[in-house]
Amino acid sequence: MSRTRWPQLLLLVFAGACSKHHRDETLTITVDEAPFRIEVRAQGVFTAAESTPINAGRLAGQTSITALATEGATIAKDDVVVSLDGSNTRNQLELLGFSLETSAVREDDLRRKAEKERLDLANTIAQLQRQLTFTETFARRDPLRFSRMDRETDQTELDLLQFKLAFYREKQERMDQKLATQIATQQSRSAFARHKSEQLTEMLDRLEIRAPHAGAFFYNRGWRGPVSVGDTVYPGMKLGYIPDFNAMVVDAYVLESEASGIEPGTPAEIRAKAAPEVLLNGVVASVNPFSERRSRRDPTKYFRVRVTFDAPAAPWLKPNGAVAVVFRVTDVDKALAVPNQALFAGDGETWVYRQVGRRFQKQTVTLGQRGPNRTIILAGLAAGDAIAPARPSEDDLE
Fold first, then answer.
1. What letter does residue 392 receive in the DSSP assignment?
2. Is residue 371 over pLDDT 90?
3. Is the model's pLDDT at 282 over the cut of 90?
4. Range 358-369 average pLDDT
5. Beta bridge pairs of residue 41
6. Which of 277, 264, 218 has the alpha carbon at shortest distance from 82?
7. Are strands 218-219 and 238-243 parallel, antiparallel or unpaired?
8. Residue-wise pLDDT tens digits, 82-91
9. Count of alpha carbons within 13 angstroms of residue 134, beta-carbon side
10. What angle do CA 66, 68, 72 make, to 5 degrees?
């Protein structure tokens, strides 16, 4: 054999060895029946299914918290649980008192001025009436005794007196109407100020919020955490609650991406952070239809899942106590399942690459329950089939 053909022969042998080595090294997974379980883990808190809310009154106005009862402390009926700042209310009440005094002084002043003007007008009208009577009595009207100029002069004076008398009488009517309007306006303002003053007085009486019944007091929690001394309070704002310990549940918060498959009736296992050795068995009662953020600073969204369970009599079973929850979404004793990365989809169908001899063939499959790592195969594969966990090379495909 010539030296020129040795390199070509070696190249062919090396290429064949590499091709055989690639096929021999292609990984496969044998599909077999095995237990299939999907678990979703979440964090949550104990809460009371029923509780009595402690709210600021509708007349509370904008104020702030000055004192709070100790959270979780046992309270008796009519104990003060929240104290509100009344300084702003007292300032408003003082201003209204000053306004009421000013209104009373202004109303008296209006009446005095109106009485003086009415008296002056009455004197003027009386004087004009006397002048008119005198002029009418002694007016020069006889054409045989008095000249035309004298008669016209007296008639002009009569006309002027009658005009003045009508003018001042009309002025008196307008003055009375104006006074009535001013007094009515002032009285309306005073009535509003008195009503507002009564409301503020009632608000002062309600600055101490008392427990409607005995129990344990807990703070209301929002995005910023529990209410605390110094927080601004608005009318009707929820400040806390008195829970019913006979109806405790768990509110678990499941990541939006992991909530699929959790529905009412799904079993759950609960372990309190305060007593991790105690296992509580529960069941999903409801799932919030909308995901929500738990913190203003965290954009992650969660579904709130309420879980009921048989509550034991334990000192650590309190509202807001942290818990870890495991949801048993799926629990099948025997199922054919494949890794999710071994599934391929397109054109409305899903397939795997099943090994046939030393090569791989595209095999359409029907999917069942899908978990975060594996998916059940309902049809298309049998126990003992070998599949490729990734797409084989073109040389290995039939």
1. P
2. no
3. yes
4. 90
5. 326
6. 218
7. antiparallel
8. 998 888 777 8
9. 8
10. 170
pLDDT at position 7 over 50: no
Rounded Cα–Cα distance for residues 63 and 203 (Å): 11
- Contact criterion met (CB below 8 Å) for 220 and 240: yes
Interatomic CA distance for residues 134 and 265, integer angstroms: 108
Contact 59, 236 (CB under 8 A): no
Residue type, 75: I
Q: How far is CA 337 from CA 272, 274, 373, in A?
A: 33, 38, 10
Backbone φ and ψ of 132, nearest 5°: -65, -40
- In the numeric block, the tokens 């929690």 are attached to 221
Tokens of residue 371, six digits? 């978990």
State the CB neighbour count (10 A cutoff) for residue 209: 22
Q: What is the mean pLDDT of the chain?
A: 85
CA distance 334 to 368: 13
Tell me the mean pLDDT in the region 350-376: 89
268 neighbors 283 (Cβ within 8 angstroms): yes
| Non-local CB neighbours of 303 within 8 Å, separated by 6+ positions | 253, 254, 256, 259, 262, 287, 288, 291
Q: Do residues 318 and 72 lie in contact, with contact meaning Cβ atoms separated by under 8 Å?
A: yes
pTM over 0.70: no
Location of structure tokens 């110094």:
230
Retrieve residue 103's tokens.
């209104």
